[in-house]
Amino acid sequence: MEEHIPVLLKEVIDGLNIKPSGIYLDLTVGRGGHSSEILSRLTTGRLIALDQDEEAIIASTKRLEKISNNFKIIRSNFSLLDEVLNSEGVKEVDGILMDLGVSSPQFDKSERGFSYNNDARLDMRMDQRQSLTAYQIVNTYSLQDLDKILREYGEEKYSYSIAKNIIKAREIAPIETTFQLVEIIKKSKPMKELKKVGHPAKQAFQALRIAVNDELNVLIKALHSALDHLKPGGRLAVITFHSGEDRIVKNIFKEAAVNVGNRIDGPNIIKEKEFDLINHKPITASEAELERNHRSASAKLRIIAKKERGQQS
To answer: How many domains are there within the chain?
Structure first.
């Protein structure tokens, strides 16, 4: 297995503006790449980390234990952030990180069924305790629902053709594996598409993963909760890998930080926003990082800060 490389590491750490005595949340601990850097900067501070994946928790615990004991990892979906913090007796925190998408080890472990490069049973669950899998979606969802998932979550140009061919194939026998699905996707696209750079199944697999894990709805809920739990001066950093995710983050951040007025009513009716955007345009990987880690190519980092008391007019 290739070494896990955290994406935009320096940019995230700089953006969180870490205080040694602060409380920080990593809502997607993965293999602990970002968390280990946060923890190494804490003295009397505390790190609380979440993940749905038991294997990720075991791996990251071993890594973080080598740095200090000022951390706790909880197995939970980050949409349950309110409940997690309540159980820990924490109301507000100094910084929160959300690194979205599937961690490299989940892609690399073929039996998890995330990858179109390895043959495995269709699965794609981030939390193995969950019942819904990619197998169920592919083999039971209607033509309309499959088309919608592929089009909206994967921005797949040939969504209807793929959905139609999935229905045809499963009438003969269930679609069991990733490679069976890849073959259906390939047959659904014209030769000019198959000749393009990149794997022809990438967008469809991304769409199914998002649907299996209800990622976009979970993200919306988690973002609002995260903003509610920031201390004055606290920061929220979010890394996305998909245009739909980035659009959600951009819009929620804009709603929280950007004043919108009009020329007729004037500025008096405008309520001052509680947050500031740290970067107005997303931060992306440097050329050096792109060379080291090809998975950083689609990463976008957005950071928002809650205004200090006295900043708001």
So the answer is: 2
Tell me the residue type at 203: Q
How far is residue 216's CA from residue 77's CA, in Å, rounded to a whole number? 13
pLDDT tens for 270-313 read 667 999 999 999 999 999 999 998 889 999 999 999 999 766 54
Distance CA 189, CA 191 (A): 7
Question: For residue 141, what are the domain limits?
Answer: 131-212
Residue 223 and residue 156 share a domain: no
- Look at residue 223 in the predicted model and tell me its pLDDT: 97
Same domain, 151 and 30: no
Q: Would residue 281 count as lying in a domain?
A: yes
Half-sphere exposure of 203 (CA within 13 A, CB side): 24
Residue pair 92/230 in contact (Cβ under 8 Å)? The answer is yes
- Quick one: residue 296, left, alpha or beta (phi over 0 = left, psi -120 to 50 = alpha)? alpha
